[in-house]
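Example 3.2
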Amino acid sequence: METIISGLVAILFWVLKGVLALLVMLLVFGPPIWLYERRRFRLLTEARQGLSICQFARSFDYRRTDTKIIRAVYEGIQDWAIGANFPVKADDYISDTYGMVDEDLDDFAEEVAAKTNRSLASTTSNSYFGKVETVKDLVLFLNDQPKLTA
């Protein structure tokens, strides 16, 4: 019985040591990374002075692209970046510019699909499936998804 208890204590010690190490790493590296990203987006915002949703929307054929999707993606990407007033460009690479990884992009696409009344049931038949790299690709991917019926 003592060996089981001492084994559990040893495991608990190593788990707590690992958690403590993780917390220290977050405290040491987290703030500089956060500050770097804030500065990077601030510089991008300054470089894109004067751009708005109007230039973004002009990147699409509004007769073939649902303008609700254009707006929802634009505003959602803004929120992801640093909040309102960040000038999103259609040719921005989602992973490079915004740091969205696959799971984040999937979650984001689900949110936009819900807001714009689009189904994500059969995405594999979409011509953009597996090819979404830019913000424009995302808009066109969602635009190719069928509308939900009421």
